[in-house]
Structures are given as C-alpha cells and as structure tokens.
Amino acid sequence: MTHSVTYSNLYPEMIVKVAKLEEYLKENNLTHSDLARALGVSRSYVSLIVNGRRKPSARFITLLLRYSKKPFEHFFDVTEGNNNEGGVPDDIEASWAGRTKTS
After folding, report:
1. Which pLDDT tens digit goes with each residue over 35-84?
2. Where do the domains of the chain lie?
3. CA angle, 13 as apex, 21 and 61 as ends, to 5°?
4. pLDDT higher at 90 or 44
5. Are 98 and 16 in contact (CB under 8 A)?
6. Radius of gyration of the chain from Cα atoms?
7. Cβ neighbours of residue 90 under 8 Å, at least 6 residues apart?
C-alpha cells in the first residue's frame, strides 16, 4: 500500500502565493510546459497549481524549491503549525529524502 504525503494533509492552512509563482515563471521566461518538463510533472498539473485550482503535493514543492533555489516562503505561506525557519519543512523533506532525482 502506497501512502501519498501532501501538504494539504499536513498543513491544511497552507496558501500558495500564486502571484509569486506566476512572477517566477515570467522572470525566468518559463511556460507551464517548461516548468513541468523540468520538474517531471504534467503541464496540466502545473497549470492547476498556478491557477489556484489545486494544492501542490509535497513532491512538487520539494522539486520546485530545489529547481528554483528559492526558499519555501517565496512561494508558500503556512500560517500555523510550521516551526521551520526556511526551506522545505523538515517533515516533508524527510518524507521525500532519497525519492527525488537531483541534478
């Protein structure tokens, strides 16, 4: 049985800063397809997140932060229950340790 860890499960109060994500794409001349290809996810999944219609998975967030080299707080806001001072919250990073490819 596979268990999927998501931010919405652990941090239901997480807010995606959609404007910051759109701004990052524009500043780096990236399309939804470009970002999807770089992260190994579908374009439609990126579009749903960018348009605020879906919360990202822990895997997506980890990949995005590693790819962009931006801190967690740049794209996301967790108003309660997060004691991490930057980067991917420790419990999410630990859940994905060794599961993602890094370049």
Report:
1. 999 999 999 999 999 888 888 888 998 999 999 999 888 888 766 544 44
2. 7-81+88-96
3. 40
4. 44
5. no
6. 13
7. 84
Instruction: For the chain, give percent helix, strand, coil, nearest 5.
Output: 50, 10, 40
The rounded distance, in Å, linking the Cα atoms of 12 and 15 is: 9
For 36-47, write each residue's pLDDT tens digit.
Answer: 999 999 999 999
CA–CA dist 50, 89 (Å, integer): 21
Whether pTM > 0.70 for this model: the answer is no
Choosing among 1.10.260.40, 1.10.490.110, 3.30.930.10, 2.60.40.3780, the CATH entry for 7-81+88-96 is 1.10.260.40
